[in-house]
Write a structure and sequence with these properties.
Strand content: 25-35%
Structural class: alpha+beta
Largest sheet: 4 strands, antiparallel
Distance between the termini: 19 Å
Helix content: 25-40%
């Protein structure tokens, strides 16, 4: 079984929340005494917005493995097997956006939906197309 998704997927799903909890209070140190009260009042709102935003973009990331002529896709509690012929295409998000998120489009709905999103290995290459896109699309066509 070959891993094609990044090992950092766990960090992107859970680590950002921890970073938000740690970094959100830091602006208090740079504010004047009169402004601190206002910031403390809006801090829960800022945290909520940050938490929802991060969760929206990272909750759908999956772990993807290639094994023979099928893919194994894992969430936290689910694991599915996708045959090669069930995949319509593989594409990546826009250039100059890091980390690179790749999307596997399926012909039929699976337990994870029509699209499976994952962060590929070495997903920080933002200035050129990720080689895994062509590799996966060529693998699908064979």
């Amino acid at each position: 079984m070959i891993r094609i998704s990044s090992r950092l997927t766990y960090f992107f799903k859970l680590g950002w929340i921890l970073i938000a909890i740690i970094l959100l209070p830091i602006p208090v140190f740079f504010l004047k005494n009169s402004e601190i009260g206002f910031f403390i009042k809006i801090q829960p709102l800022l945290f909520y917005i940050l938490f929802i935003g991060i969760t929206f973009f990272t909750k759908s990331l999956k772990h993807v493995f290639k094994e023979g002529d099928h893919l194994i896709v894992k969430g936290f509690r689910k694991k599915i097997k996708i045959e090669k012929w069930e995949i319509q295409k593989v594409e990546q998000n826009i250039l100059f956006f890091a980390p690179r998120i790749m999307t596997i489009h399926l012909k039929w709905k699976s337990n994870f939906g029509f699209k499976i999103r994952f962060m590929p290995y070495k997903g920080w290459a933002i200035y050129w197309p990720h080689p895994l896109v062509d590799e996966m699309n060529n693998w699908i066509e064979k």
